[in-house]
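Input.
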Amino acid sequence: MSHPFTEPPPPSALRAKAIETLLVEKGIIAPGAVDELVDLFEHHLGPRNGAKVVARAWSDPDYKARLLENGTEAILELGFSGFQGEYMVVLENTPTVHHVVVCTLCSCYPWPVLGLPPSWYKSAAYRSRVVSEPRAVLSEFGLVIPDDVEVRVYDSNNEIRYLVLPQRPAGTDGWDETALAELVTRDSMIGTGVCKFPPVTRR
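Output.
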């Protein structure tokens, strides 16, 4: 899915690309190796960890209570911790409240559970606008929040990282954690998206 908040690459990114090109030309790394590594951390390893946390919370009311009370310790129960995840707060989406996360100063982001931050999360446009006009920004992501649902924006910083606990999709009663985790998207754990809709044919 394309996102509306794109900007020209900063000088540091251009320098990194030049170094990568040089390493490829010298045969030190394979073409596309860096892109594959970034994709792995941005879309697979990190978000899969977060999806496991969400699936456990959906399946285990006691774990969910611990997660909402002390996100850091509850996430550690599943083995996820480390740099950029030292102090985690989990925000539960409900039928009446929708949470969305931003870092207005830079790009503070919970790496242990979400991997590397996507480029749009770091963009000046997202960081400034989602605070002042969250509904408009979310609509640009394709997420329309009903008027009777409150939108709350949380600003991450160098001390606190936030993880959104999205609403469990209807029609998933009896699903195990592995199946539930497949429905959880990275954007649903930031608040700019929702979980995948369960296939009609699934049993």
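The chain has one domain: 11-189.
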